[in-house]
Amino acid sequence: MADKRFRHFVDHVLPDLNSGVHENVLIVIPSYFDFVRLRNHFRREKLSLAQICEYTSTSNVSRARSYFFHGQRKFLLYTERCAKLCVSVSVCAWQLVRE
Q1: Which of 9, 47, 54, 99 has its Cα between 20 and 30 A from that of 65?
Q2: Measured on CA atoms in the order 83, 26, 10, 44, is the torsion positive or negative?
Q3: Residue 92 near residue 50 (C-beta atoms within 8 A)
């Protein structure tokens, strides 16, 4: 099932998100294993990426949020298990939508 979900996202959803219509895209990923797989795909394809997971240091979280907020990274990959960071990312995404 994970392979089908990944292939569908990469083949159908990601091209639309990367088409230029969307300026910033927050992608919440439910499992760390899916996060790693998708992160590796983004790196291979050289897509503009910031990332936050449960293992990300506080300084790197701040850096990723700043890059995303200021438009220096198009995508922010975020694991669902980062509950302690959820409010900060939600506020960041809300401010981008509002502008």
Answers
A1: 9
A2: negative
A3: no
d(CA 8, CA 95) in angstroms, rounded, equals 29
pLDDT in tens, 43-91: 999 999 999 988 888 889 889 989 999 989 999 998 888 755 555 544 4
Q: Which of 96, 44, 97 lies closest to 70, judged by CA?
A: 96
Token pair belonging to 74: 């198009």
SS3 state at 50: strand
Q: What sections of the chain are H helices per DSSP?
A: 2-8, 14-17, 32-44, 58-69, 86-98
Q: Is the pTM of this model over 0.85?
A: no
Residues 85 and 61: their CA atoms lie apart, in Å, by: 8
**Residue type at 29?**
I
